[in-house]
Design goal:
With 214 residues, the chain is α+β, with helices and mostly antiparallel strands. The chain contains seven helices and eight strands; from the N terminus they run βαββαβααββαααββ.
């Protein structure tokens, strides 16, 4: 229970450059005390974000007073998922859920029909578009920029050519509405890695993306 995996940035900033087997002190809102370093992770933009990633043992987590088994998500990435059918992936998920005593997740059948999905979130009055396929960085950047480029930039060009003020105002609104997309583009462009291969995937339940590297 007193083992922890920390990042290189954590060790250089707070851990006196400790190595595996050494003892470090955690002084967070939830976890305090001395822990033995059992693993070291790469630091990814932690200095810029002024945040550190740590991995604690299951025993330490369950002993924490604020532990709630229903408050955590399990995210699974299947290798060659584009070659697996719905029935096979469902059986894999069922096996994982049974092994780790997790509730059986609900499967989104649309994932197996379309690589991309789009719609409208009425609660926030905003459209959305998501892609279930892993993409290279340039593909992800281009796909993220396309809604603003097509609906905003394209409409702006047509409005100038046809001298339509209302269409031009609508085009400006579309460009401004793409502010969140451009923020995602900026974050992905600022992301640096020394890995040889990386693919970008839309985050499964939040705005943004997940990077898989090797």
């Amino acid at each position: 229970a007193n083992e922890v995996v920390v990042s290189e940035y954590f060790l250089s900033t707070y851990g006196n450059n400790a190595r595996i087997g050494d003892t470090v002190t955690l002084d967070t809102e939830s976890f305090h005390g001395d822990y033995i370093v059992s693993g070291i992770m790469d630091s990814i933009n932690e200095k810029e974000a002024n945040a550190c990633a740590i991995i604690i043992s299951k025993a330490a987590l369950t002993e924490w007073n604020g532990f709630d088994p229903a408050g955590y998500r399990a995210y699974v990435h299947f290798k060659n998922s584009d070659q697996l059918g719905e029935e096979l992936m469902t059986s894999y998920c069922r096996e994982i859920a049974e092994e780790y005593q997790l509730p059986m997740p609900k499967m989104n059948s649309k994932y197996f029909v379309y690589a991309s999905d789009f719609g409208f979130i009425w609660s926030s009055f905003s459209p959305y578009c998501t892609c279930s396929e892993p993409l290279e960085k340039w593909q992800y950047l281009l796909g993220t920029a396309m809604p603003a480029l097509v609906l905003g930039g394209g409409a702006a060009v047509v409005s100038v050519m046809t001298n339509q003020l209302l269409l031009f105002i609508l085009a400006e609104y579309m460009i401004l509405s793409g502010g969140g997309d451009f923020l995602i583009i900026l974050k992905s462009m600022l992301y640096r890695t020394d890995k040889q291969e990386s693919v970008y995937c839309d985050h499964p339940y939040e705005c943004g993306f997940v990077v898989f590297e090797k």
